[in-house]
Design brief:
With 341 residues, this protein is α/β, with parallel strands linked by helices. It has eight helices and 17 strands. α3 runs parallel beside α5.
């Protein structure tokens, strides 16, 4: 692609956190619970591909705790790594994941739970808020003005979505050139594992009225779980089909693309292709966390690769996506898919 033909290039990936129960962690990763090798390589290669922004789709830390000292410590390590990417010219746009905002525990009856907590949302703002959104730094790194960002443009308590806490800097949006970028918190307190459809409907309508041509939505949990075998159960909005349907109706209506993580795997699909639907869901939860598909779970070699997507918004009106990946032995980077969205 001739660089002169490109308006804006961005990359997206999610899920770089390590699991403390994983075998074979080196001393560093066992302490900081970060796949430093995979995430470092993805940052380096996406920057070399010309990405001016990196949308990171959640689960950058292990989290799952309400202990603020632990959360701050894990955020600090990830931020330290990501600072290198910023200094090389790629702005990092953070998307909250369930590991950041949820607490994992067992209730008095011995039943396990994973629930978003207000204190974890506060910890997110404290550790990520300077990136959401530093317009001057965004302009310096991307060459584009981030317009129509308003921290108050977020789901409201008592509003169209049944959230119970302030969603400032968790769900937000902005414009850059002819594109609109909407970031959604898919685990808001009181509304875990759901898309804020009420807010998104109004947000996309306002962006369309401003004359924006391209719409990109980023969230942690997928709308459609990638079922790499017949034993996989719903892990995204498909756990509530009504919410899934309402969300995807909007994605199709605006010709948007939805990028997500959560499943530690890469997969791209058009969920309604059988009904002439054209919108794409691209799962890139493959930034370093333990692979979703364990050995023998899948026959697709791409299900065992660290992968990310790099997207080019072109002057001729097209949007071109390329997914790159490398295997668990850190072999040569390959193109896994390249197509016009």
């Amino acid at each position: 692609m001739n660089p002169a033909d490109v308006l804006f290039t961005f990359s997206t990936v999610g899920d770089s956190r390590e699991d403390p129960a994983a075998e074979g962690l080196n001393g560093q990763n066992k302490i900081w619970l970060q796949n430093t090798r995979a995430w470092t390589r993805i940052m380096k290669e996406s920057n070399a591909q010309g990405a001016k922004a990196m949308f990171f789709n959640g689960d950058m830390i292990m989290g799952y705790t309400t202990d603020r000292a632990t959360l701050d410590r894990q955020y600090a390590f990830w931020r330290g790594m990501s600072a290198t990417l910023m200094e090389q010219g790629t702005y990092v746009v953070p998307v909250p994941g369930n590991h950041e905002v949820q607490e994992k525990g067992t209730d008095a009856a011995g039943k396990g739970f994973k629930l978003a907590r207000a204190g974890n949302e506060d910890a997110w703002r404290a550790n990520m808020g300077d990136l959401i959104l530093d317009k001057l730094r965004f302009q310096a790194l991307t060459g584009l003005d981030a317009k129509n960002f308003d921290a108050a443009n977020t789901p409201q308590v008592g509003g169209a979505d049944p959230v119970t806490t302030d969603q400032k800097q968790l769900t937000y949006s902005f414009d850059a050139d002819n594109s609109h970028f909407a970031i959604i918190n898919t685990d808001a307190t009181g509304w875990d594992s759901h898309a804020p459809v009420g807010w998104l409907k109004a947000d996309l309508a306002a962006a369309k009225a401003r004359g924006l041509n391209h719409f990109f939505v980023f969230g942690h949990k997928p709308a459609y779980t990638y079922k790499y075998n017949d034993k996989v159960t719903p892990s995204g909005f498909d756990a509530d089909p009504a919410n899934q349907t309402a969300f995807w109706d909007l994605v199709e209506q605006y010709g948007a693309t939805y990028f997500s993580g959560h499943e530690h795997i890469y997969h791209a699909m058009q969920p309604r292709a059988d009904k002439a639907g054209k919108a794409w869901e691209v799962i890139v939860g493959s930034g370093g966390s333990p692979f979703e598909a364990k050995p023998g779970d899948s026959t697709n070699p791409q299900d065992y690769m660290y992968a990310w997507a790099t997207v080019q918004v072109l002057k001729d009106g097209r949007v071109h996506a390329t997914v790159y990946g490398f295997d668990q032995k850190f072999g040569t980077t390959q193109i896994l898919k390249s197509w016009d969205l």
